[in-house]
Design goal:
The chain is an alpha+beta fold and 850 residues long. 16% of the residues lie in helices and 28% in strands. Strands 2, 4, 5, 6, 7, 9, 10, 12, 14, 19, 20 and 22 form a twelve-stranded mixed beta sheet that branches. Helix 1 (2-23) packs across helix 2 (117-131) and helix 8 packs parallel to helix 10 (543-558). The longest helix has 22 residues, at 2-23.
Length: 850
């Protein structure tokens, strides 16, 4: 359906442009109107099946290491990548539909590795058709850059190496999910109050994120710049409220890779970005839409403490208070404002890519000539970049530049000077891609079609309420550039500087990983420092700022007046043309046993535990134990479900309220399901392979008895169960969407009981800890360990004396390495001690009185 829609969409656009050309002599410019802010927000889950390949780590490709392979299973959704096997946190998307009654801006953020311009155009058509609004160039797709979500929705050939071969069903599932979420926002659009705020140095101790690019530490580009680590220190935030001040949505921006989990992870996960959203969400008393828009994440690593899944939660815990504080300081306004958005596909190629910096330089590549050797001189005597940059001798572009050693020594562009000496010929890479991804009989066109243009968008809105980093508050215009790749610190800095110097824009902000993907976006001086980041983009050191200049020119041509100009009236910026792909026809299994409990399961039943070399594996259980201790207990449940082609069961933690089962919720009122970090979910087919033969489908769910965000060691006591709701195929359809029927099943109930506090009484002190289990996966305390000791807070010591009388006293301690020391001396005649924390968790020690 989607590719057919895109073909119709292309005809519609062509007709519209032709009509514009015919009307040029008499066309009257459209004048924009200011209007009061209207906004709709929504969030939801993306319909990705377990078994899809996870994008982001090429090491998951079979020829490059097969990282993430948990067993010999195969999948209908993979070609050359390993198969995902479960869910740590589900891929989500959030939508902001902003309007002033005259113009619209739709921003969708999705938990995937990168954006795809073909998907953006498809969404424009879908949403225009559904609403009757012309959304051409007004839809933005930005991503979290998690390396743990499907990526085979992109038809960009060279990014097959990052996420496997394109699959039309995955594209359709993704597009439909985003359409549904965007339309929820549209249907909820209402008068709003909006405002922006900025701050700097909000993470001074690198607890949330840090610079990961040492190659440019001594690089000085601007006179007022101090060399050193170049982490972008800025955090900016868009606050969207109802007109009565009730929060509607929070959209914040800073740069951070989502790479806490490595290539060996087989679980779908939102990674660092999503866990910051979860933590910020809990700062509010009711569910609202929380969305992290990536900034200069290309050269920023996630930090946090603890390990694996708990480390993800710690990043959110370190970030949440600062982000919520900035939200609280953000002014809002309901005053009328102007809104305009424009989109172009910036043309690229060896003879097209150029950087001029508004006439200050003229950096370009010479035309390709196989017989002309480069001079191997990168800089002139004054240290400036020499032009033309003849070292980038790459007719169709070059990949893997910046490495000390080329990937294939015989396939380089034939240049000896660093960092060009590692550049691989794209033609050779295309042959590798064709072989790995089973494209026999199909010649990948050169230049690669997706490398010939890069979609980018800019929006200008204002005047709007804004709080600057220095605390001053006013009403000003804000301009946002949405860039197709991994924006880096110096790139973001350069955009802000150039927008102000050349266009007079005071508040020029950047959202990266948006609209399309061209790899890392660096300014030329930074690219030439080499290292990891230059290796992915195709068109060398000038590509990043070439795209930036295209965005700045688009702003100059379209957004500096209150007239509505066509995005590309002359047709100079055509989009990539994509082939139509059929939907796969492999039908999912019809599973008659779906929705039944099972005491028997395969020996190969997959669980992701242990998570680290210091962890211990968990022994799978069909049903939870009768009692599950806070922190130390993990409730497990195995059930028969549907084929993952139709079934991604929702597993919910339920609590008996005395009359009925109710979904347990977070402090902000969100149901605790496998969409959150609390519940893990895995799938195991039996037999493991081949996928095209009939299989039984076992699903394993687990919940560690830990509070979602607050009161982690104090989850409410009571009776609980795990309830699974899913779907199974009926066998009556030939392609996706498959016909299904639903099922529901619950585990046996279990009692959550207090945790046991480990207590040791020494001379004049009590040492206490709550030990997490060796197979634990949740964050317990920022000062503790997910698989070891954790501090005890707000405790009471109760001593029993020889005469059986009791003496109680509150005790306050200090913690180190997960152990809390209470400086307390046992009273004379004490025979035992009960140490109880504020949640009722207890530790007991009996003294030897002989």
């Amino acid at each position: 359906m989607g590719r057919t829609l895109r073909a119709v969409w292309a005809l519609w656009i062509s007709s519209a442009l032709l009509a514009c050309d015919e009307d040029k002599p008499t066309r009257t410019p459209v004048v924009l109107d200011a209007g009061a802010p209207m906004a709709g927000v929504a969030d939801g889950l993306i319909d990705f099946p377990v078994g899809t390949p996870l994008g982001g780590y090429s090491s998951r490709c079979s020829i490059l290491g097969s990282d993430g392979r948990v067993d010999k299973r195969t999948s209908a959704y993979t070609v050359a990548f390993t198969t995902s096997a479960g869910i740590q946190t589900r891929s989500r998307a959030q939508a902001l539909w902003l309007s002033n009654g005259d113009q619209d801006l739709v921003v969708l953020k999705a938990d995937v590795i990168y954006a795809f311009d073909g998907l953006v155009r498809d969404l424009e058509w879908r949403l225009s058709r559904a609403t009757g609004r012309d959304l051409t160039g007004r839809v933005v797709l930005t991503t979290s850059h998690t390396h743990h979500a499907p990526a085979n929705y992109s038809a960009s050939y060279h990014f097959y190496l990052g996420g496997d071969r394109y699959n039309e069903e995955i594209f359709q599932r993704f597009a439909t999910s985003l359409e549904d979420i965007a339309l929820q926002a549209w249907e909820g659009i209402a008068p709003a109050a909006i405002g922006f705020s900025m701050t700097e140095d909000w993470d001074p101790d690198d607890l949330v994120y840090s610079d990961r690019r040492p190659e440019n530490d001594e690089l000085k580009v601007w006179p007022d710049q101090t060399p050193g680590e170049k982490k972008d220190p800025r955090l900016w935030l868009l606050r969207v409220d109802h007109t009565d001040g009730t929060p509607m949505g929070v959209f914040f921006n800073f740069g951070m890779h989502s790479t806490v989990l490595g290539g060996d992870n087989a679980m779908i996960s939102t990674d660092a970005s999503g866990h910051v959203e979860f933590a910020v969400a809990e700062q509010f008393s009711a569910p609202i839409v929380i969305s992290h828009w990536q900034g200069a994440g290309g050269d920023a690593s996630p930090r946090g403490t603890d390990d694996s899944y708990a480390r993800l939660e710690s990043i959110g815990a370190y970030a949440a208070e600062a982000i919520h504080g900035l939200w609280a300081d953000t002014p809002t306004s309901t005053d009328p404002f102007f809104l305009e958005t424009t989109t172009r596909s910036i043309q690229e190629g060896l003879e097209t890519v150029r950087v001029t910096r508004n006439g200050e330089v003229d950096w370009h590549y010479p035309p390709y000539d196989e017989d002309v050797a480069p001079d191997n001189k990168v800089y002139g005597p004054d240290g400036q970049i020499l032009s033309p940059l003849d070292e980038f001798k790459a007719e169709y572009g070059g990949a893997f530049c910046g490495y000390d050693d080329p990937l294939i020594s015989t396939g380089t562009i034939g240049v000896d000077v660093y960092p060009y000496d590692g550049c691989m010929q794209v033609e050779l890479i295309s042959w590798v891609i064709s072989g790995i991804f089973d494209l026999e009989g199909f010649d990948i066109p050169l230049p690669l079609p997706t490398s010939e243009q890069a979609m980018t968008t800019a929006t200008k809105l204002g005047p709007v309420a804004i709080r600057q980093a220095d605390g001053t508050v006013g009403e000003e215009d804000v301009t946002i550039g949405f860039f197709p790749g991994e924006t880096t610190q110096m790139f973001v800095e350069q955009f802000g500087r150039r927008a102000e110097a050349e266009l007079g824009l005071q508040n020029a902000l950047v959202v990266g990983y948006a609209q399309d993907h061209e790899g890392y976006l660096l300014i030329p001086e930074d690219w030439l420092m080499g290292g990891y980041e230059p290796n992915i983009n195709i068109w060398g050191p000038l590509q990043g700022e070439h795209i930036m200049e295209g965005n700045l020119e688009m702003i100059r041509a379209n957004l500096l007046s209150h007239r509505l100009e066509p995005h590309d009236a002359s047709g100079d910026f055509p989009d990539t043309a994509y082939d139509i792909h059929p939907l796969p026809t492999h039908a999912p299994d019809v599973t008659a046993t779906a929705g039944t409990a099972t005491a028997e399961f395969p020996d190969e039943l997959y669980t992701p535990l242990p998570l680290t070399p210091d962890s211990e594996p968990i022994t799978p259980q069909a049903q939870p134990d009768a009692t599950v201790a806070r922190v130390q207990g993990i409730a497990q449940f195995v059930f028969m479900g549907g084929d993952p082609g139709v079934d991604v069961p929702t597993v919910t933690l339920e609590r008996w309220d005395g009359e009925d089962w109710e979904a347990a919720t977070t402090a902000a009122g969100r149901p605790i399901t496998d969409a959150l970090p609390d519940i893990l979910l895995t799938h195991t087919p039996d037999p493991l392979y081949p996928y095209y033969d009939p299989q039984n489908h076992y699903w394993w769910a687990s919940w560690q008895a830990v509070g979602h965000y607050f009161d982690r060691a104090g989850v409410e006591l009571g009776t609980y169960r795990l309830k699974a709701e899913g779907r199974t195929a009926t066998g009556t359809s030939d392609t996706w969407p498959w016909d299904t029927t639903s099922y529901s099943i619950a585990s046996e109930s279990f009692e959550v009981i207090p945790a046991e506090i480990s207590v040791q009484v020494d001379e004049g002190a009590i040492l206490a800890s709550i030990y997490a289990p060796p197979s634990g996966y949740r964050l317990i305390d920022l000062a503790g360990s997910s698989i070891g000791p954790n501090p005890v807070h707000d405790a009471t010591a109760t001593w029993t004396l020889e005469d059986l009388s009791e003496m109680s006293e509150p005790v306050t301690g200090t913690s180190a390495d997960g152990v809390t020391t209470f400086l307390v001396t046992a009273p004379e005649g004490a025979v035992s001690l009960i140490l109880e924390d504020a949640y009722g968790n207890q530790g007991f020690q009996l003294f030897d009185t002989e």
